[in-house]
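$ ./design --mode recover --in tokens.txt
reading tokens...
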């Protein structure tokens, strides 16, 4: 029986990886073995980066809320504890936006907590 290699599927698989490597530098964009390794590593970085993005934004929001709270004589932890006690359910993303873009509304939230 003759040997079957299914070159159509192999070529399609390689073209898919080389297309993903578009924009890479040097042999990483057009040599199959180098491009395959580069794309695999890029996918790993992308997966980890999606998790890190969430952490980084949360940290940024906390810094912004803390800065806004300290302008009104309160620390971040006291503000968040007061929000819990007074049943004000605003998440950190919204609070950070208020602190940055709408300081008068943020001040009213801080006054309710005090």
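writing sequence...
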């Amino acid at each position: 029986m003759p040997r079957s290699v299914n070159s159509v599927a192999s070529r399609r698989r390689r073209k898919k990886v080389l297309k993903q490597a578009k924009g890479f530098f040097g042999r990483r964009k057009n040599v199959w073995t180098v491009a395959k390794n580069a794309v695999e590593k890029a996918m790993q970085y992308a997966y980890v980066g999606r998790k890190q993005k969430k952490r980084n934004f949360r940290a940024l929001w906390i810094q912004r809320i803390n800065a806004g709270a300290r302008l009104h004589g309160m620390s971040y932890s006291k503000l968040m504890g007061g929000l819990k006690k007074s049943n004000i359910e605003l998440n950190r993303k919204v609070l950070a936006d208020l602190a940055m873009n709408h300081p008068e509304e943020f001040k009213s939230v801080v006054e309710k907590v005090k």
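exit 0
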